[in-house]
Amino acid sequence: MLLGRGRFTGDLVRPGLLHAAFVRSPHAHARVDAIDIGTALKADGVAAVVTAASLGHPYLLAMLEREEFRPTRMPILAGETVRFVGEPVAMVIADDAYRAEDAAELVEVDWAPLPAVTSVEQAESATAPRLHADADGNRLVDLLMFDDDRLAAIFAAAALTVGATFASARVAALPLEGRACLAEWDDRDDQLVVHVSTQVPHQVRSGIAQALGLPERQIRVIAPDVGGGFGLKCVVGREEVAVAAAALRLRRPVRWAEDRQENLTAAFHGHEQRYRVRAAFDDDGRILALDAVIDCDTGAYSVFPFTCAVEPLMAATELPGVYKVPAYRARGRAVATNKAPAAPYRGVSRPQTVLVMERLMEKAAAALDLDPLHIRRRNLIGPGEFPYTGINKITYDEGSYREALDLAEAQVHQKKWPAERDQLRDKGQLAGIGYSCFSERTAYGTPTMSQRRMGMTPGYDTALVRMDPTGEVIVTTGTCGHGQGHETTFAQIVADRLGVHPDQVRLRQGDTDLASYGWGTWGSRSVVIGGGAAGRAADLLAAQLRNVAAQLLEASPADVELAEGTARIRGDATAAIPIAELARVVHFQAHRLAEELRYGLEARATFDPPGTFSNACHAAMVAIDPGTCAIRLHRYLVVEDCGVVINPLVVDGQVRGGVTQGAAAALLERVCFDPDGQPVTTTLMDYLAPTAAEMCDIDIVHLQTPSRFSETGAKGMGEGGTIGAPAAVLSAINDALSEAGVSFDHIPVLPQDLSAALSQAGAAP
Amino acid sequence: MKDLHQISLRVNGRHHELVVEARRTLADVLRHDLGYTGTHLGCEHGICGACTVILDGQPARACLVFGVQADGASVLTVEGLADGDQLSDLQQAFSDHHALQCGFCTPGFLMLIEAYLAEAGPEAPTAEQARELVASNLCRCTGYQGIVEAVLATARARRAAR
């Protein structure tokens, strides 16, 4: 990778390679009356122009087995109606990417524009146009997840009720490599081979198979190097299916690489949510009840395979978070609008739920004149209370919620943040310190995922561990890392159990022909589930090795130790045999072994855990220039507990990257549309991703509470940074503004928001 | 009608002659005509910096330069940094400081930083200067801290070796 030898999808070439370009809707909502491809077909270099009709109207259908769910067919190419700007209606295939784009401009479409729905508020109104015929109020799912008939009485009697509306803007996941694919037909294997920049190769295979009516064995999906995903690539894109369909039809290789404008407008978004919440507290700041209506702006379609319910289900289930909430009601809805569909974005709803709970704690603390950390402590699930089963029917395994907060506060004081804040204030800046406490359910297998009642229930993963005749080890997994360092981490897990060096272990991933059906990399699942499966398979292989060593050394298998590349007999310094020699004998001298020990060294195992909670406390300090209202992240601290840390460098990298995305969601990032549904943030000059200048160093302290639900004791941690940062940054902003009497309940908080609010409060420059 | 031009380019010390359309970007020439796929395209409008190469000694966004504009120029791409499989000091520092995750932005950062260090002379940058330099490009994975540390470590080591 450092040498420039990475192999990303857009780098792949084939003899006779063709290039795809899409004709996309310029309207947020329109009927497609006619498509004229005649001129485009005659353009230089054009091999084909395909439309919904010529492909036979294929579609992707994501299902949820719930009555309250309205399924949406997402056409691979829209044939009758377009529902967002950027929706593809035709695909041009040419011998050169430039010429494909030229010809795409020659496709003539008769559009009949329709009124657009661009917000949840508008979507709910009785007069709003319906995006999908059977979805009243444009609600694609409307779930009353929890209810409690005690709520009215609790609120009536409570010393304090805090009510507020919280909101988070739509964001783009923005992997540096956009989506890309190269599809080719392989006559010899009777297979469509599709190289895709994806987090979920098997689900891409399933999606293509379902859309094109092929058996899954006839499709091989390969993920080469993947330039970031963050959730954008854990769903199946219609462009990938369209390119596969074209390669199948033309029997020629076809490549497509999304450009950044397509990525910002026509790929997936996420994260646009509104929470209308009230919470009851007693005099001491104990929360008594929580009542929430959660609306997620899901865009035009349900995504495959997760459906539009992924955000509302996660939000309604997880809202209470790390706090002991005795009574709870939550309604979660996904509302269709004329925008690009929402995919799960790193953290999925938990950046918002954590922000909501932390703001409720701070609002209650202010009303009751309590210390904002003290009120958190009073409500946190504490030491000795684990495993704790909440009102949301979730069981939280052992964590360090209180310890993380205590340690974060101690670190903040030890690092003299309050004094630094005061110095900044003396210099005329608005400065503040904020905290967030949260846990993150990770590595959910089918026991947990099945409660969502998805048509395709994800969760398990299977690993195959093989030793070759030279004693080297190959691990295949259905997880699909793309920068998370799985090559290193999985090698450590397996090497440790086989007694070999990690350099002797190679991980093979991202190929549906190599790995058993698996669920890819998302939801902080890979190291716990994929790594757990690899660990279990390695244990089985280690047992085989011990048996072989026992026979060759004439000892009992129970006495064989595998370490440092050698099989040794406990208590006998002379009895030892190199592991590589065991491998050689098994493969090349099988006749020397008892029948059950012959013929190959390999083991397959599956892991399907219920899930495990990692936790953290974040602290942030911001400094605001009162003149420009620019908000600068000044200090950042993470105290995190992901159980056993297998590789600290990898964990720290995930935390820092996650915090950067989360802080940017609080300070910078938002996808904007005009009232007609035209996207406004179509370049990186309009959609502001954080650079190094917006970030500060992030200090990290580790606590380690091992998980009982994980083979290695490790908990997932890929999303925690993104989950905790928005709340901590918002808390710091509100602390900075406390003296001005201003506070915010939405993200991002932009300079113009600050300027307006300060003017209104009479505190403006 | 194609508007074709014959150009010559020296890439990582190797001479190339080719015929390109006037509209073809240097990035596409390098990636698709000459096979230097280490140069990546992240935005194609000059913001992300993933396509940064060193063009006649200066860091340049290869997506904002047409191939014909680079006629006669000398280009250094990420493939030209190492000595065979032996990482350069900067590449090694990226590895040591976990300055990359998915690796897509990495070539652009390496070329940006290499050009800066070559030009900056004997004074090692301050942490603030290093951060400002790194702010030229986008990375979505690392949070930048490792990249900043790699800049500082390489600058310190080069200074000590002078």
What would your notes on this structure say?
The complex is a heterodimer of chains A (765) and B (162). Chain A folds into three domains: 9-114 and 179-226 and 233-265, Aldehyde oxidase/xanthine dehydrogenase, a/b hammerhead (Aldehyde Oxidoreductase, domain 3), CATH 3.90.1170.50; 353-443 and 612-760, 2-Layer Sandwich (Aldehyde Oxidoreductase, domain 4); 460-607, Aldehyde Oxidoreductase, domain 4 (2-Layer Sandwich). Chain A is an alpha+beta fold. In chain A, 59% of the residues are buried. Chain A starts with 17 loop residues before the first strand and ends in a 5-residue tail after the last helix. In chain A, a hairpin with a 4-residue loop joins strand 12 and strand 13 (191-196). Chain A is globular. Chain A contains 20 helices and 33 strands. Chain A has a seven-stranded mixed β-sheet with strand order 3-7-1-15-12-13-14. A six-stranded mixed β-sheet of chain A has the order 9-19-18-17-10-33, with helices on both faces. A four-stranded mixed β-sheet of chain A has the order 22-30-31-32, sandwiched between helices. In chain A, 29% of the residues lie in helices and 26% in strands. Chain B has 162 residues and is an alpha+beta fold. Chain B folds into two domains: 4-80, Ubiquitin-like (UB roll); 89-161, [2Fe-2S]-binding domain (DNA polymerase, domain 1, Orthogonal Bundle). Chain B is built from five helices and five strands, in the order ββαβββαααα. In chain B, strands 2-1-5-3-4 form a five-stranded mixed β-sheet, sandwiched between helices. In chain B, a hairpin with a 2-residue loop joins strand 3 (52-55) and strand 4. Chain B starts with a strand and ends with a helix. The model of chain B has no long low-confidence stretch (mean pLDDT 96). The interface between A and B is large, with 52 and 56 residues.
